Amino acid sequence: MTESIWRKNITMETIAGSVRSFWSWYLAQAQGLRLDWMLDRGERRLLVRIQGDDAAVLSVLDGAGAPSKERPDKTTSSASDLLAWLSRQGRPARVILELPHEKFLVRNFDAPAVARAALPQALAREVERKTLFRLDEVFLGHAIRPNPQRRDTLRVTQWILRRDIARAAMERVGLTLDALDLVRPTPDPESAEAPADLVVSSAALGSPAFRRALIAMGALGLGLFVAAGGARSWRDYQSGAQIEQELEAAAGNASTIRGMAAHATAESATLTGLRRVRANTPALSDLLEETARILPDSAYLTEWRLSETKEGGRAVNVSGLATSAADLPPLFDTSPLFFEAALTSAIVLDTQEKRERFSLRARVRPSMETKAR
Questions:
Q1: SS3 annotation, 279-297
Q2: How far is the C-alpha of 101 from the C-alpha of 159, rounded, in Å?
């Protein structure tokens, strides 16, 4: 009887299924009993909501996001007074800023499901690569939901907010940007999709006590996993045939890990090459600033475009109007950032503007050559 019990297969699937069942039961019981006291860790939230007419509305919420039952006196009306009142109550407070949707830049796209863990870093790199913003100029947040049409992809909505907009909103209620913890769009009652929270400070991620509780739960789960692994190892020790099967499986896993390590090494080499190329290439803002500096006051552009060349470099293609378009290529050639400037089409006189319409292309000089000059 004892031998049959130890020979029962203890697999990761059965453990995961048991954990999922317990968690579903726990949530159902908590919702049925309405154990709000277990979810309320004592913190309070000061909600600063900026409406469409730039009017500010202040609200005090509890840890679950509902209006707090504790009410300050009527003399406590400003944001700084509310924070001082919460401090006197011994309640840790987080400041949340809600802004209208039109204050945010929103991007919607699909991403592979296997890249979910690396999405935050990838989205940050995309902001620097595809926009004129630097990371220290914006707040970022994103929401992920399954794609019902393709199960191997995720639908991602990215929210981008300029810091100067958040700073102006906080100054409107008499607070500084340092007091801000979270920024989020005003919830749309007609939309079922919840907007993303843009984390500003690390305090918004939760209290240390709650994080310690999560770590303790993780340690307990790890202990159960180790105990299950020990039981399985003891069972395999009693059976030579099963030991041989486990060794074959381990060899297969080792081969997979070696392949993953080789793939990671290749990815690391690719990233190193990309960093080297980026360090050897002038920034987009520098190219725009240099173009504006080169052009005379009598010329202006209708198009500015950055493209890749066949030789692996980059080139700037501009179009516009100028009093003397033939004088522009020499001006670009004297720049430390451009070389081999040339007109790409015939000069045409615009009778309405009284200027010559032109198209010009100049190659971008690598950063190492720019420093040498």
A1: HCCCCHHHHHHHHHHHCCC
A2: 10
Residues 63 and 189 in one domain: yes
- Per the listing, tokens 């400070």 go with 201
The per-residue pLDDT string of the chain (373 residues; one tens digit each, 9 = 90 and over) reads 444 444 444 556 667 667 777 776 665 655 555 444 444 455 677 777 777 666 777 777 766 666 766 666 665 567 777 777 777 766 667 787 888 878 888 888 888 888 778 878 888 888 888 778 888 888 888 888 888 888 888 888 888 888 888 888 888 777 877 878 888 888 776 766 666 666 665 444 444 555 567 667 877 888 888 888 888 777 777 777 777 778 888 888 888 898 888 888 888 888 776 666 666 678 888 888 999 999 998 888 999 999 888 877 889 999 999 988 889 999 999 988 899 899 988 888 988 888 999 999 999 988 755 555 5
- Cβ 60 vs Cβ 54: under 8 Å: no
* CATH number of the structural domain spanning residue 336: 3.30.70.2830
What is d(CA 80, CA 177) in angstroms, rounded to the nearest whole number? 13
Which residue from 159, 148, 140, 146 is spatially nearest to 111, judged by alpha carbons?
146
211 φ, ψ to 5°?
Answer: -65, -40
CA 95 to chain centre: 21
Query: Is 215 within a domain?
Result: no
Element (H, E) at 82: helix 79-88
129 and 177 inside one domain: yes
Residue 298 exposed, middle or buried by CB count within 10 Å (0-12, 13-18, 19+): exposed
Which residues, 6+ apart, have CB-to-CB distance to 203 below 8 Å?
Answer: 94, 181
How many structural domains are present in the chain?
Answer: 4
pTM over the 0.70 mark: no
> Both 169 and 296 in a single domain?
no
Q: What angle do CA 360, 361, 366 make, to 5 degrees?
A: 145
**Do 149 and 96 belong together in one domain?**
yes
Instruction: List the domain range (segments joined by +) for residue 26.
Output: 2-36
Q: Do 302 and 184 lie in a common domain?
A: no
